[in-house]
Amino acid sequence: MSLSESFIPPQSEIDVVEAAVFSLCAERSIALRSQAGVRVAGAAISLFCAGYQTQDALREALCAGDDAVRAL
Most buried of 2, 4, 20, 70, CB within 10 angstroms? Predict the structure, then answer.
């Protein structure tokens, strides 16, 4: 698969997910490149695809709905 054939989300969507992940990781002192940071990022991407499309909505869902993230 070439780069032109793969899906690249709009920058605004990337910015929303990135801001939520950075904010949560900073608040909880989680290193972004750690296993926990990768888990937060994966959960944020899944939640964004499920309809949580603002930074606030993502943070609330990450904090309230995911036991793995909530336990961090």
Answer: 20
- From the number of C-beta atoms within 10 Å of its C-beta (0-12, 13-18, 19+), residue 12 rates as exposed
Token representation of residue 55: 């930074």
Contact 44, 62 (CB under 8 A): yes
Residue 8 pLDDT:
81
d(CA 38, CA 34) in angstroms, rounded, equals: 6
Written as one letter, the residue type at 29 is S
Distance from C-alpha of 55 to C-alpha of 27, rounded to nearest angstrom: 14
The answer on pLDDT for 1 being more than 90 is no
- Whether pLDDT at 53 is above 90: yes
